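Box S2. Input/output pair 1.
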Amino acid sequence: MNQVDYLRISLIDRCNFRCQYCMPEGAELDYILKQQLLTDEELLTLIQEVFIPVGFTRFRLTGGEPLLRPRVVELVRAIASLPQTQDLSMTTNGFLLAPIAQNLYDAGLRRINISLDSLDVDTFDRIIGNRGRPRWQQVWDGIQAAHRVGFDPLKLNVVVIPGVNDHEILDLAALTIDRQWHVRFIEFMPIGNGELFGDRGWVSSAELRERIRDRWGLTESQVRGAGPADVFQIPEAKGTLGFISQMSECFCDRCNRMRLSADGWLRPCLLNETGQINLKTALRDGISITQLQEQVRHLLAIKPEINFKGRDSGTLGAYTRTMSQIGG
C-alpha cells in the first residue's frame, strides 16, 4: 500500500444540505452534541502530538459541511501554520463559501473540492433534498469566488446517480475545456443506503469515459494525484477529468488515508468499520500521548489487512453511520 500520510478530518456532522447519497431520506440522524465534538484545542493536540509524529503531513477538512463549524477560518490558520503541514485542503458544498473564500485562502487553505452534482437547478435541488428556495446559484457563486481567489486545484465533485444526473455528464465534463478546473466523477457508493438506488445500480467510470471519448476524445492526463482518481483530459482542455471508481475497481493498494470523525473516532477504512479508535474519549480520560501514538501506529500497521479483507462489508448489510457522519 501507499504510505498513509493523509488524514481526513470531519469538523462537524451537521450539514445545510441533505443529499440523498449522504443522508438517506427517512434516516434517523442522531447529531453529535456540541460537548461530544472534538474541541479546537483537542483537535490541534491530536494533530500536533499524535498524527504528525506518526507520519501524517496532509490534512483535509470535511463534514457534514465544514463551513458550519464555528471559527473555521481560525482553525484553518492554526493547522496551516504548523511547520509539518505539507498540504491543507477542504471539501465543501460551497453554499456558504463565497463570503469567506478570501479569508480561507489568506488563512492558508490552498486546495478546495466543491460538490456540484448538477447544472440544472431542479435536479440539483432534488439531489440535495431542498424543498425551499433554490440553492444552485449560491453554490455556483461559491465556485466562482474560489476561482477568483486562486484556489488551485479547484475540484468539482460529481456523484453520478443513474436516472437522476447521469445525462449531464458531457455538460459537466465541458466545464474543464476553457477553465483550469478539475471535475471528478464519483461512482455512487451504497454505504448505509444500499436500497437508495437499488433499482438502478451505479454507472461505471468506464462507461462515463466512453461517453466523453465519443464526444471529444480522451487522453490520460499528465496531472497525477496521490488519491484514488484516475485522471484524464479532453484534448487541449485546460482542466482535467477524474474518475473515482470505488465500486467497479479496487484501489485499496493506492489508499493513503485515514478518517477522523467529528466526535473523535479514527477510522482506517471508509468501506468497513473494523479497528476504529475513540481518540476523544482516550484523550479526555487522560491516556498519555505516547499511548495514543502507539494505538495509531498499530492501526497503521494493520490497515492493509483491514482494507483488503473488509472491503465489501460496508456495502452489504447493516452500517452504523451514514456518509455524513463519517466525513466522506
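Box S3. Input/output pair 2.
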Amino acid sequence: MNQYGKPSTEKANADEGQNGLPPLPLVCSLDRDVVTDDAAFRDLAVDWNHLLGRSPGGSVFMRWEWHYTWWQVYAGRHDHLHIITWRRNGELVGLLPLYRQACGIVPGRTCLRLTGTGELAIDEVATEYGDLLVDSGLQAEVCSLASEYLLQFNGWIHIEMPCLLEGSLLHQVLVAGGRSHLRVRSAGLRYRLPLLEDEAGYLDSLGASRAKRIRRSQKAAARDGGIAVTTITSAACFDTAFRELAELNHERQAHKRRKSVFASARFQAFHRQLSRQLFAEGAVDIVRFHLGARLLAVLYCYYDEVTCHYYQSGFTRKDSNRYMPLTLAHLMEMQRNREADRKYYDFMRGEAPTYKEEFNCETSAMVNVSVYRWRWQLSLAIANRRLRAGVGKCLRALGSG
C-alpha cells in the first residue's frame, strides 16, 4: 500500500508474529485500502456500522456518524484522512479511522491520530474508547496487519492515540509493535456501573450514610411535588433541551471558575449535527428533571445496545443540599435503563478524586499511547512534559503564596 491510498493485497504467512501477536494462518487473504477523501468516507457508512456490530471494540463513540460528523466540523486544512480498511471477498472485516495532522517538529511530516481526537481543549468532544474495529473471527489477523502497517511510519513520524481502554485491541496493537519508542501514560479511569440490582439494593451497596442522605433527598423531592422526567420526543426538541443543558453546565463551571465547553461554537455544531442522525435510532437523549416548574438537572446521554453512556450534565446549585439534583438524576436515569434492559451505566472517564467514586462503580484503566519513529522524539517528549510539570508547580506555588 502506498501513501496515496491505492489498494493492495496483504497475505498472511506463518512467519508473522514478530510483534507479539499470534502468527497468521496461511488461508488469510485480506485486501487493504486507505480512504483519503470525504466522498469515500461518506460511502463507508453502512459497512462501517455493520462491522461495528460485529466488533468487540465497538461502542457508540465508534459509530460512523460520530467520526464523520467530527471530521466535517473539526478537520483543519492541513489534516488529511487516512482511514485504513481491510476486506475479505469485498466484505469489510477491519477498520481503523485515522487522519494525518501536520507535525511542527519536522516540516512536511505528520502525526497519525484517530479521527475524533486532536482538537483544542476548549472545543473537545471527548471521543473515548477509540479502537480498531475487527470482525470477531479475524482479530489476530487484522491486529497483526494493523501493527505492521502502523510501524512502517509511511508519511508520519508520530502516532498519538488518546483515551484508550487498557487492553483494548488498539492498545495491544501499539504496545506489541512500539517497543522502545513507545510511551504510555495514564488517562484516568473508566467508571462503569453494572445495572444488576434494583434501586433499593443498589442504594444499600453505597453504605449506610450515603444511602440515608440520598433517601432523605428523595423524600424531600417527593414532599415538594416529585421530580418529573422529560425526554426528547423529536429531533426538533433537541435545540431547546441542548440550550437548557448548556445554561446549567455554564452555571456549574462558572462556580468552579472554569469555562464551559458549551461555549465552543464547534462543540455545539458537532452535537447539533450528530443528534439529528442518532435520534431516530434511539442512540441519544437529553433527559430533563423538573421539580414543579423548576429545572433541577439535565443529563446528556448516548446509548448502545447494552450501555447508557453519561456524557455531559448540568444542574442547579440552588437547594442542592436538600435535593442532591445530580445524584437523583443519575438514579432515575439508571432506573430508566434497567427498564430498557441495558446492562451498564457508564460514567465514562474521570481522574481521582472525582464524585464518580461515590457511585460504587467498577473501574478500568485508560491510557494515552504515543509511538515515535525515532528515539530522540521520545526523549524530547518526556523532557518537555517534565518541564511543563515543573513550570506548573512553580506557578501554583506562586499563586498560593
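Caption for Box S3: The chain has twelve helices and 16 strands. The radius of gyration is 23 Å.
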